[in-house]
Amino acid sequence: MDYTLLKSDNRIPNFGIGTWGLGENEDKKEKEIRSIVFALNNGVRLIDTAEMYGNGMAEILIYEALKHTDIKREELFIISKVYPHNAGRGKIFDSLKASLKRLGLDYLDMYLLHWRGRVPLKETVECMEEAKKEGLIRDWGVSNFDIDDMKELESLKYGDKCVLNQVLYHLDSRGVEFDLDPYMKDRNIALMAYSPLGRAGELGRNIFKNSTILQIAEKYNASAAQIVLAFISKVSGYIPIPKSASRKHLSENIESCNIILTDEDVYMINKEFPKPYKKMPLDIV
């Protein structure tokens, strides 16, 4: 698994799994735990979750899955997110410690503000830095922040300590490439892509039935999803975190890390799914 060096000098895997939607159905609990164990046993080290997912149950499922592996803690990269209404001084530390307890961990590799809320950003940033100093988190970042949000963040004391922004990104939702991505690259802020397979956001067409994607997939004896993930990871340079409870799909997603697209492949994909030529509203779900 390849890694990206964050501006904090900590390393983050270039591929991970998401857990949005997990922990919401008791009947699926064991299958979901097994899917996380399967991912870990097949090389995945980055897991993204949030206190919101299943009202904390997704974090508990991760804890249960980790009990079935012998992977060292320092090899894992665990991310969780705080609700905006819990991101103030009076609640954020309770939320963070509750997430750690559910996960069975002493610290998070990264803690994200899930989206903008009413709590002043300055207050949240100060708390994130305090959590870092206390050893509860190694790094912090944000999610669903557009360029104006990032500029406001940068203007704050400690705002430059933000190392990552997690946003919705897939081939039919490339709006971040117009101005947000260049802004973040200039400041060495990593971009993580949630819903990278286009299951959310404004979809104009079905990516997996697109003839160009299918043609390229056939060339590599791969699935359409693998081609999409390879493009996002290797071409766009973002960290995809697809979610799947299916072993077949998990295997395919993980194996996408081995696909290197040619310049011709990239040209064909860009022609079919063009980069934005103007500012687009940030796609959020």
Give an account of the 3D structure:
The record marks 81 as: Lowers pKa of active site Tyr. There is one protein chain. This protein has a single domain (3-272), classed as NADP-dependent oxidoreductase domain (TIM Barrel), CATH 3.20.20.100. Helix 1 (29-41) packs across helix 2 (57-66) and helix 7 (211-219) crosses helix 8. Strands 3-4-5-6-7-8-9-10 form an eight-stranded parallel beta sheet. With 285 residues, it is α/β, with parallel strands linked by helices. It has helices spanning 29-41, 57-66, 92-103, 121-133, 147-155, 180-186, 211-219, 224-236, 247-255, 263-272, and strands at 3-5, 11-13, 16-18, 46-48, 77-82, 110-113, 140-143, 164-168, 190-194, 239-240. The chain starts with a strand and ends in a 13-residue tail after the last helix. The protein has ten helices and ten strands.
State the total count of DSSP E strands: 10
Major sheet: size, sense and barrel closure?
8 strands, parallel
Percent range of helical residues: 25-40%
What do we call the CATH homologous superfamily? NADP-dependent oxidoreductase domain
Number of domains: 1
First CA to last CA: what distance? 28 Å
> What is the CA-atom radius of gyration, in angstroms?
18 Å
Number of helices: 10
Give the low-confidence spans: 200-204
Overall geometry comes to: globular
- Please report the first level of CATH classification, the CATH class: Alpha Beta
What CATH architecture would you give?
Alpha-Beta Barrel
Structural class: alpha/beta
Features:
two-stranded antiparallel ribbon, 285 residues, AKR, TIM Barrel
